[in-house]
Amino acid sequence: MARQERAIRTRESILESMASLFIEVGYEAATIAALVERTGLTRGALYFHFPTKESMAHGVLARAVTREGILPQTYKLQEWVDLGLLLAHRLPREPMLRAAVQLSVDPKARTLFGTRWPDWIDLGQDLLVEAKERGELLPHAVPAEIARLAVGAWTGVQLVTEALPEDRALSEEIARLYQLILPNIASIGVLAKLDTSPYRAERLLDSAAVEEPVH
Q1: Residue 194 and residue 173: Cα distance in Å, rounded?
Q2: How far apart are CA 194 and CA 129, in angstroms?
Q3: For the stretch 123-152, what's the b/e string if a residue is b when 16 or more beta carbons lie within 10 angstroms of its beta carbon?
Q4: According to the CATH classification, is domain 2-62 in 3.30.1330.20?
Q5: Contact present, 209 and 191 (Cβ < 8 Å)
Q6: Which positions make up the DNA-binding region (predicted)?
Q7: Which residues pair with 137 in a beta bridge?
Q8: How far apart are CA 21 and CA 16, in angstroms?
């Protein structure tokens, strides 16, 4: 068991180090030699866990789509908003997520193994379909269209926020994005009850941590 746990920690450490390299220099310029230097592991040890750089990229992308922090809410539309707010809160703090986004917009990487955007769209669409069935969306709102366009808008806001010289918090910018979107898709009764605060994600993660069982 101890050996297995050590292997899991080593694998995680390799992914985190490679994610940092992807962020710093991009997919193509990130090399195994640089990874060896950064981790202190031998090439043999690296290849034991990941046979290629591409497999490491797949490992990073696999961590991108998550419902971490999302708690059941009265309205499914709130859970959909929470999905985007939580990602905005976590992205600047978690290299693995930042690297996954960077790989998704890197043309070279994208041609090799695609992106996780379809998975984010599907996750959002599932919540929006439930919201539609519950009468939380306006009659004209189409879950598939909203999910697809919202992921595109979210990604655009993230890239622009990161590139602008002003010190803007991604959580605040994404909160504004939802404040613009929701009046066009949410039913009047639900709209007034939705929380789009940029601080909501932090509160959700704190609540999720409190609710985790102690082993």
Answers
A1: 17
A2: 17
A3: bbbebbebbbeeebbeeebebeebbbebbe
A4: no
A5: no
A6: 31-50
A7: 186
A8: 9
CB 29 within 8 A of CB 109: no
Whether the pTM exceeds 0.70: the reply is yes
Contacts of 60 (CB under 8 A, 6+ apart): 15, 18, 19, 22, 96, 99, 100, 103
How do the pLDDT tens digits run along the chain, 215 residues long? 577 788 788 888 999 999 999 989 888 888 999 999 988 988 998 889 989 888 988 888 887 777 888 899 999 999 999 999 999 999 988 888 888 888 888 888 888 877 888 999 999 999 999 999 999 999 999 999 999 999 999 999 999 998 888 888 999 999 999 999 999 999 999 999 999 999 999 999 888 776 655 44
Q: How far apart are CA 33 and CA 78, in angstroms?
A: 45
Cα dist. 193→178, 186, 202 in Å?
14, 10, 19
Sequence spans of domains, the chain: 2-62, 76-211
Residue appearing with tokens 């922090």: 69
DSSP, residue by residue, 47-93: HHH-SSHHHHHHHHHHTT---TT----S-HHHHHHHHHHHHHHHGGG
